Amino acid sequence: MTTHDATVGRYFEDYTVGDVYQHPFGRTITEADNVWLTNLTMNTNQNHFNDHFAAQNPITDGKVIVNSGLTVALVLGLTVYDMSQNAISNLAFTDIMFRHPVYIGDTIYAESVCTETRRSQSREYAGIISMTTRGLNQDGTTVVTWKRSVMVATRDSGIGQGYFPESTDSVTDYS
After folding, report:
1. In 99-116, which positions are buried (b, 16+ CB within 10 angstroms) versus exposed (e)?
2. I need a labelling partner for 108 at 20 to 30 A (CA). Which of 13, 33, 66, 156 fits?
3. Which residues partner with 27 through β-bridges?
4. 114 by DSSP, 3-state: which?
5. Helices marked H in 11-67 — which ranges?
6. What is the pLDDT of residues 2-28, one digit of tens each?
C-alpha cells in the first residue's frame, strides 16, 4: 500500500507564464450570502438589500445587486486552490474592474493566467507569481477582473508540507 502525503496546491516551480488555470469550483450566490456580507461590512447602500429601492436602478435591471465585496471575496476564494494555497503572503491587488452586475442566484467561476514568475530576492524559500484573474457568471460573462501578485513557497522550503500527524496507534488494518 502506498501512502500519499497530504498536500494541496502548487509550489513556485509549478507555475508557467502563459498557462491558464480554470479553477475547479463554482459557487452559487444566495440571498443569505449577500445579506450577511452586506451587514458584516456595514454597507448601507440599499441596492444590496432593498427590493423596492433596487427596482429603481437602471443599471441593475431593477434587481438587488450582490455586494461587490462579496464578488471579490468569492472570486479570490475560488482561485486559492490553484494560485495561492501555498502562499506565504499576498503582495498586491491592482486594477480591479467590475464588468457586469452579479445577482442573487448567479453561479460564479474563476480563471487565472500566470503573467510572471520570479524568485524572491529577499526570501530564498519563495518565489513571486503574478496573475490576471477573471470571475465569470454561469453564462460565461466576465463580472470582475484584477491583477494580483503572491509570494509562494518553493517545494524545497518544506512550507505547507509535513503537517499531517503521525498516527500514535499501532493499528495498520483499515478494514
Report:
1. eebbbbebebbbbbebee
2. 13
3. 108
4. strand
5. 31-40, 51-54
6. 555 656 788 899 999 999 999 999 999
